[in-house]
Structures are given as C-alpha cells and as structure tokens.
Amino acid sequence: MHTDLVAALDIGGTKIAGALVDGHGQILVRSQRPTPAQRDGETVMRAVEEVLGELTASPLWERAGALGIGSAGPVDASAGTVSPVNVPGWRDYPLVRRVRQAACGLPVELIGDGVAITAAEHWQGAARGHDNALCMVVSTGVGGGLVLNGQLHPGPTGNAGHIGHISVDLDGDLCPCGSRGCVERIASGPNIARRALENGWRPGPDGDVSAAAVAEAARFGDPVATASFQRAAQALAAGIAATATLVEIDIAVIGGGVAKAGDVLLTPLRKALGDYATLSFVQRLAVAPAQMGTDAGLVGAAAAALAKRTDAATV
Ligand SMILES: [Zn+2]
Asked: Which family does it belong to (predicted)?
C-alpha cells in the first residue's frame, strides 16, 4: 500500500483538531471538536475518537502511514501519556495507546505542543533552513521547542525546549509550576496584563484587560503599558540568551497571541537581547516572528509522524 500521507492530531485545552497531511505539509482532510476540558477523561477521549472517526472515514485514510500527536503538556512521550494542565480529567492518561486503538494500529508519535509548533516552523515556516533554532509560543502560557543539528529535539519525554519555565529572576514571584521567576510568570499574556493593571494602567471604555489591549495602549505611548511589555521582552530575552549560550541556536522564532503585538514586543526584545546575549557566538542571534498560523500544531504533529515513518522505513 502506498502510504504517502500522515495523520495529525493537535490537542489543546479549547479544541481537538485532526488532519490528513501530505509530504509537503498540505492539509487534505480536516476535522475538529471543542475540547470538553472540564469533563471526565473518557468524555475527552470520545471527542478525540470522533475527530479520528472522521479521518478514518475518508477514502484517503488508507494512504496514512503514521499518526503524530501534538498535545498540551506536560506530555510523557516515553510512557505515551499526557497530563495537560488545562484538561484535569487526563492525568498520566494513556493517550498513545488509546489513539493507536482508534487509528487502526498506525504507529503513533507523541510530542508536546511547543515541540509541534517548532517542527512546523522548521519544516514550513520562519525556522526553515536553520539547523539550530528555538521556537516559542507566547500566549496564555509560554512554550517552546528546539531544533538542534537540523533535527527536532523533543527530548526523552517530548518536552525539551520548554523555555517558559526557565527561571530568569532567582527570587521572583512564585510560578504555578513551583519554581520562581519563570519566563512565563513575567512574559505570558495574563502576566503582562496583570502587571500593567497593578502599576496603574486602566482599560478603555470596552473594559478589555487582555495583553492585546495593553499592546494597543503601548502603541499609543502609554508608559505603564510600554513598561509591562518591556519587562516581558526582558524576560524573554534572558531566556533566549541562556538557550543560545547553552546550545548555540542561531534564530529564535516567536509566535502566539502575545507576539501579535509585533514591534511593541519585538523592538524591546531585540534591544534586551543585546544586554543578555553578549558572548561572540550568540551575538548574531536573529529574532523572527512565527510564520505558521493556526494550523501550526497540526502541521508540526504531521512532521513528527513523517519523521517516525521515515525511521520505520529505514529500519
Ligand atoms: Zn514556572
């Protein structure tokens, strides 16, 4: 049988998306359900099975040679389990086994959502052609992943590159992860908004207190809004510089809702990198906005599945 396609699942706290994807990253069939995130684990799994059911019903399904899953984390790729923070019904949930059952025994590759987005940016987006890259998602949380020596580097459990929980402030605020002063505790959207409000920024008549509203105020010169973005940029820059110093990345790609602030974030970020990325071998580090849109998770999961299929073919 000619298996030139792969199946992909992108599992997050708000939606479960599935697709059949070709070797060029084109999505040929897609399916989606809202995540019943507050329900029990079996109910969440049924939504995954419905998404898979639409894929397996496609006449193209028989061309799928592997299935990739990008899931909200933490994931444990070595155990095949997931424990997404925003899906309390799944703790050490045996997602790989359940998906393999629902997908007629296809080989299944599991990676974290930050790693999936990295795979997508490396394959089709802003990190294309870069052998050493850090890709980040800055939104409700801060996630990321690494490409090293031209290969995706998920690490043993599929979580490597999780830059949001690098500490950049030793005695900083407690982070929900248990550490202090994490990048995410300073640079995530909710934390940008919280800090602006604490320092006296007030929303407009629409009452919008999101990071996007803070970005809009910063664009119009509001000093408190600007300072909150500068602080976030500083935390991101310190995390990126640490990563670059450790493993010599040459590009940092930044996506996610907060990155839509554009120059409000990127200008102070590039400036702060000058303060933290100081050694000769990290000074040329580039910062680029992400290019992959809302399909990044699916395309990245497909990339992981393609790599798995290729591995299997060479065994
Ligand atoms: Zn943390």
From this structure: Belongs to the ROK (NagC/XylR) family.
168 touches 181 (CB < 8 A): yes
CA atoms within 13 A on the CB side of 3: 17
CA of 176 to the centre of ligand 1 (A): 6
Report the pLDDT value the prediction gives residue 311, as an integer from 0 to 100. 63
Ligand 1 center–CA 195 separation, angstroms: 17
In the chain, where are the structural domains located? 5-111, 126-289
Distance 138 CA to ligand 1 centre (A): 14
CATH superfamily, domain 5-111, is ATPase, nucleotide binding domain (3.30.420.40)
**Model pLDDT for residues 194-244, shown as the tens digit of each residue:** 999 999 999 999 999 999 999 999 999 999 999 999 999 999 999 999 999
Task: Name 209's Cβ contacts closer than 8 Å, sequence gap at least 6.
Answer: 193, 197, 203
Q: 143 C-alpha to center of ligand 1: Å?
A: 11
pLDDT in tens, 24-47: 999 999 999 999 999 999 999 999
Domain 126-289 matching CATH 3.30.420.40: the answer reads yes
Q: Could you tell me the distance, in angstroms and rounded to a whole number, from the CA of residue 102 to the centre of ligand 1?
A: 34
